[in-house]
Structure to design on (244 residues):
C-alpha cells in the first residue's frame, strides 16, 4: 500500500533522551530511518544558510531566529533536497518528539495513499486548531481539510517531491522559522492541507523538553505575545481559498 513511501525521523544523535522515542517511530512508520538533525549552534553546519532579520517577506517577522529554529529549518530543507535528488515521490517527515497512535496512523496513511501526490504537502498535526476553508475527505474519524490559516509546528507531515522542489526554490534565504514560513502559501506557491483526527501527540516534555522553547522573563513574554498577535492578524488577511 505504501509503495515507495519513505519516512524520515529528524533526530540529533546527541539528544539521547529522545532516542527511544525516535526508534519507536522508526518501528511504527513505513520504510523509516533516522535523519541527522542540523545543529543550529554549530557554525560549520549552517555555514551555507543565508539568514535575514525577518524582513524578506510581508508580514515582517518580529523575532530574531534562534539557533534551534535555524537547525530545524535546515533539517527540513535537507530532507526536501533528498526527496528531489533521490526522486522520492512522497515521504513522511516527523520530528523525534512525535507520539503516534499506530492504529489511527495506519488509517491515516490508508486514507492519504490514494489522495496524496508529489504535489501535496499534508500536515498531520498534533493540535486540531485549524478551521476548514474546504473539507476534501472524511474517513474513520479523520478529516482532510484545506485550512483557512495554516497551523504552526512541523511535528508530522507527508511531503511530495514537487512540493519539496517548490519549497526549496523559495528558501535559499530564510528570515523566520520553517512552520511560520510554510503558513505563507502566497509566497511559497504551495497549498497546504491538514489531516485532523490522527491521534498524533507531541511528547517533548516527557523526553527531555523542547529543543526550541525557553522561559523568558514575564515582561519579555508579554512583549512577544503582543508582537505575535499583531503578526497573526496580518497573516489572517491571506487565507487559503482554493483546493490543492
Amino acid at each position: 500500500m505504501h509503495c515507495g513511501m519513505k519516512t524520515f525521523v529528524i533526530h540529533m544523535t546527541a539528544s539521547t533522551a529522545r532516542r527511544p522515542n525516535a526508534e519507536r517511530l522508526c518501528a511504527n512508520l513505513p520504510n523509516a530511518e533516522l535523519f541527522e538533525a542540523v545543529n543550529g549552534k554549530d557554525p560549520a553546519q549552517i555555514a551555507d544558510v543565508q539568514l535575514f532579520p525577518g524582513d524578506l517577506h510581508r508580514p515582517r517577522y518580529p523575532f530574531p531566529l534562534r539557533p534551534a529554529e535555524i537547525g530545524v529549518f535546515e533539517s527540513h530543507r535537507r530532507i526536501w533536497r533528498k526527496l528531489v535528488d533521490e526522486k522520492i515521490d512522497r515521504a513522511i517527515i516527523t520530528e523525534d518528539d512525535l507520539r503516534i497512535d499506530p492504529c489511527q496512523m495506519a488509517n491515516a496513511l490508508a486514507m492519504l495513499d490514494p489522495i496524496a501526490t508529489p504535489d501535496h504537502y499534508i500536515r498531520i498535526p498534533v493540535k486540531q486548531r485549524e478551521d476548514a476553508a474546504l473539507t476534501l475527505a472524511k474517513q474513520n474519524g479523520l478529516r482532510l481539510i484545506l485550512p483557512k490559516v495554516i497551523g504552526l509546528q512541523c511535528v508530522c507531515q507527508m511531503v511530495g517531491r514537487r512540493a519539496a522542489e517548490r519549497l526549496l526554490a523559495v528558501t535559499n534565504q530564510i528570515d523566520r522559522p520553517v512552520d511560520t514560513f510554510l503558513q505563507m502559501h502566497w509566497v511559497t506557491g504551495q497549498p497546504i492541507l491538514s489531516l485532523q483526527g490522527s491521534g498524533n501527540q507531541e511528547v517533548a516534555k516527557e523526553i527531555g523538553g523542547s529543543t526550541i522553547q525557553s522561559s523568558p522573563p514575564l515582561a519579555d513574554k508579554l512583549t512577544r505575545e503582543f508582537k505575535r498577535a499583531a503578526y497573526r492578524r496580518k497573516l489572517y488577511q491571506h487565507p487559503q481559498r482554493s483546493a490543492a
The helical segments are 19-28, 67-85, 102-112, 161-169, 178-182, 185-188, 218-235.
